[in-house]
Amino acid sequence: MPEDRIVEDQLKAMIVERLFLNVSPSDIADDDLLMEKFEIDSVRLFEIVIGLEEVFNISLEDDEFSIERFESVKAIAELVRSKLAQSA
Amino acid sequence: MEEPFYFSSDGFRLFGVLHQPDAARRTRHGASLGVALCAPFAEEQKQACHVFVETARALAAQGIASLRFDYRGTADSQGPFTDFSLAGALRDIAAAAALLRERAGVARIALLGLRLGASLALQAASCPPPPADCLVLWQPIVDGALFYRLNIRRMLVRQMMTHGKATGARDTGQADTIDLDGFLATRALCDEIKALSIADSGLRVSDRPPTLLVQIAHTPDPTAELKPLLDRLGPAARFAPFVLEPFWDRLGYVNCSPLIQATVAWLVEQAPSAA
Q: CA–CA separation, B11 vs B134, rounded Å?
């Protein structure tokens, strides 16, 4: 269903915008390993964290900072959905 | 000419570099305006250093003197980082402005600050006697509590990249100091930062010098962070948005030439002609 894609689409748009990537959001596959494909270092990952907290109005707990949660759009989307469900 | 030296502020030896234009470039406005560059906080200062150097050299090329300096407890200035405080940094800015006025022989002073340095420059402008005749604020920190939280976030992300997961902020609520991403900050400094709210600062409209408010972000529209300050500054401020990567938070090179050129052009406008 289209609404199921909203989180992934917003994430891809946010990543492209905040990291100033020269790709279209649609060029990012859900399973792409972000750090390998887009050479994301710690400061760019920091930008993603800040971006998703702002865009989705969520706040990550310290124990949610684990690398597997940020390895792909799919993983990040799962984290976002989990946080949104908690706050609902 | 670039002259490194030490000067005093409250008994602290501060490191500074005075950028003086060549005599041939010391034009009418160059003799009237000097620019004190107010550095950002901790890790951001390291990443932004080259942009400050480029800016100082661009100013000198336009005949304008400038002073880069390190606050007490930071970089090459005297003292450990635990000596750094916002109150102390404000006094350092005042000392730097006074020294620039004397050494460069300029009649007017501009404060150019980045991030926390911009917030301090704005605050310094409200301290009597005001050390500045005009302000350039590059992406100031408006909400200190949010800025503090971002510093903790940055540390957690670095821990995650190193260890696979965050090992935790070292803010136990017990220690006298906090590891802020490698910088040992006093609890008093953290409290100062968290209390910072420059949109609510006591600057009166009549006190505000001409101000260039620069937004550096992924969008040209005023961000939620800067909008309250923009509204507060009112018509005394010119808003200049730059769609530019946050160079103070990047490992790689970011071309800041458009930002520097626009800033220098605005400062030249602020320099009164001696004629």
A: 27
